[in-house]
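Q: Hi! First time doing this. I have a protein sequence and I read that you can turn it into a structure. Is that right? Here it is:
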Amino acid sequence: MTIGEAISQRINDYCKQRGITLNKLCMMSGVTQSTVHDVFSGRSKSPRVETLYNLCIGLQIPISEFFASPLFDESNILTD
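A: Yes, that's right. Below is the predicted 3D structure, encoded as structure tokens:
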């Protein structure tokens, strides 16, 4: 799994847990719809930290919680 795929999966997991759509996340976080869709679809392979931070604000979680997942363990991430 790439870092972009792990980020996309993590966002999807949080949205499902909270019962919100990506469009609702855009409104909650102040991140543009195109940016959120690029991150979610994997088109943005390395989203900016500021973008992830704002998404976490929208999800009402600290960014440290976002990355506190086995998805981001070094053994799970493929690098180029």
